[in-house]
Write a structure and sequence with these properties.
This protein has about 190 residues and is of the alpha+beta class. About 40% of the residues are buried. The chain is globular. The chain has an 8-stranded mixed beta sheet with strand order 4-3-2-1-5-8-7-6, sandwiched between helices. The protein is built from 6 helices and 8 strands. It binds zinc ion.
Length: about 190
């Protein structure tokens, strides 16, 4: 899976809408391929990708990198094994993050691959504070929820990070349905 396929996939699944969300991929030790700011992942093309170095300087491409670039770079600098970072505002997971409500494991996949998903308290979008705080939560997790913001997933490759973005959204949706049904139990 390349970055363009990854963008289209999460757009089609409703994990991002409009121009929200961003994705990056580590090309080598010094270069990161990242979506440009203002990109709609549903119709992403090569022209919407830029290559930056670890200081955030554009080394290839004509657009400005995502406004969340700092977060992507801090994660790569901290964890050498991470090759891909995906950020979405997927609705069910974002709602749990907003409420500070932890996700429960609802199936074998969520138990094995998500475990205890951390929820990070609010930091303003695009800041170094957010970048550092998110990086910190990824010490023991490949997924983090950000209060009043959304989701970050990481992986050894794009497939892993994308699959985790899908899994955390599915898990949040099932959590919501379970709670709703449990509340209504006995009322029928
Ligand atoms: Zn965002």
């Amino acid at each position: 899976m390349n970055l363009i396929e990854a963008g289209k996939r999460i757009y089609e699944k409703g994990l991002v809408v409009g121009k929200s969300g961003n994705i990056s991929y580590k090309l080598d030790e010094g270069r990161i391929l990242i979506t440009a700011t203002g990109t709609c992942l549903g119709v992403i093309t090569d022209g919407d990708l830029v290559v930056v170095n670890l200081k955030g300087k554009v080394v290839k491409g004509h657009k400005n990198p995502s406004s969340e670039m700092r977060m992507h770079l801090e994660i790569y600098k901290a964890y050498k094994s991470i090759k891909a970072v995906v950020h979405t505002h997927s609705p069910y997971a974002s709602a749990f993050a907003y409420c500070g409500k932890k996700l429960k494991s609802v199936n074998p996949e969520s138990e094995i691959f998500l475990g205890e998903t951390p929820i990070l308290s609010f930091f303003p979008h695009g800041t170094m504070e957010l970048a550092k705080a998110v990086t910190d939560t990824l010490k023991d997790s490949k997924v983090t929820l950000m209060e009043k913001h959304g989701v970050v997933t990481v992986g050894k490759g794009l497939s892993q990070a994308i699959e985790l973005a899908e899994l955390v959204e599915e898990t949040a949706k099932i959590n919501y349905l379970v709670e709703t049904l449990a509340k209504n139990k006995g009322e029928g």
